[in-house]
Amino acid sequence: MTTGRHARRIVVAAAGLAAASTTVSAAESAAGAYILGIRGPAAGVTPPTGLFFSSQFYSYGGRISGRIPFEGGSILGSARVRANVAMPTFLLVTPVELLGGRLGVSLTAPYGDVAVRGTIGPLRLADSVTTFADPSVSAFLGWRRDDFHWQLGLTGFLPIGDYRRGELANVAKHRGAVDLFGTLSWIEPTIGIDVSNTLGVTLNRENRATRYRSGTELHWEWSVAKTFANGFSFGPAGYVYQQLSDDTGAGAALGAFKGRVWAVGAGLGYSFKLGALPVTARLRYFHEVESRRRLKGDSVFLSVGFPLWVPQPAAKQDI
Q: What is the CATH number for 132?
């Protein structure tokens, strides 16, 4: 007989959880460390030297279903996931230059909630949690030539969030990961066009609690935005995800579980000033058109960003 404990393990493995500071993607629990769609317009632009703050609110709702191998046969299972995550980020752009590029570092500390409702055969399971997710740190070099802006960098995901071993819902992933990324933006100010791309590869370490190691993941995000004279901008966006290598480890009971997905959407932005403080706000929506072996759903990003400190140029002295 299938026990509740066995059913819970199967639903966890097949259904997947949306999580913070990172993408709902394939790999362990059909969710990855990097959040698809998190980078958009002006992705390649490096701000001037200074300290900056941004906060993104991320909401995702998705579903996965299919037959799950179990005890020599298979059982029909499904799950619905809803995640809401706040991701405050501090970015420090330094005056240090390496290879002609300016050095920047950032820290993101996400906090949010995730709820999962699943079925496995005749059993129904549900779980939810609100807590801290795994933080991430990034470092990059940024360059500019005429209307082209680009960055090369890496993001490390630290498995120190509040992970609940053996539970259906988790915001934290409890596995280390490194995302190697490159961004490129073409921004033509006279016509107000921004074409931005991000290409990245995520390398995962094993989750020691589940003995599961997710495969290597590839992601590409793109956006096109037209900026108008009143400060508003609008345009299409999308992303593509493909898992490159198999999941491995004693906990990978479902085998390779390689996934892929692609999504399209749109973004609305508004740049304005609060007194002398420049502020940029963005609202973006994505619909996952096709997915394989991962959650399929819709996501919304709401972000706001502004400088906390920018050094003033030294005043010229009369001689």
A: 2.40.160.40
Q: Return the structure tokens found at 181.
A: 């990324």
Question: 26, 112, 19, 20: which is closest to 64 by C-alpha?
Answer: 26
Q: Is residue 35 part of a domain?
A: yes
Q: Model's pTM, two decimal places?
A: 0.87
Distance CA 287, CA 307 (A): 31
Instruction: Tell me the pLDDT tens digit for each residue of 42-101.
Output: 999 999 999 999 999 999 999 988 765 544 455 568 889 999 999 999 999 999 999 999
Nearest to 240 by CA among 215, 257, 223: 223
d(CA 280, CA 42): 11
* Secondary structure letter of residue 10 according to DSSP: H
Distance between CA atoms of 4 and 7, rounded to whole angstroms?
Answer: 5
Predicted confidence (pLDDT) per residue in 121-153, tens digit: 788 889 999 999 999 999 999 999 999 999 999
Q: Is 307 helix (H, G, I), strand (E, B) or coil?
A: strand
Total domains, the chain? 1
How far is it, in rounded angstroms, from Cα 122 to Cα 155?
Answer: 42
What distance in Å separates the CA atoms of residue 249 and residue 263, rounded to the nearest whole number?
30
Note the Cα 277 to chain centre separation in Å: 28
The encoded tokens of residue 190 equal: 């006279």
Domain span at residue 115 reads 4-308
The secondary structure of 154-195 as a DSSP string is EEEE-S-S---TT-S--S---S-EEEEEEEEEEEETTTTEEE
Q: Which two tokens stand for residue 130?
A: 């609100």
- SS3 (DSSP) at 191: coil
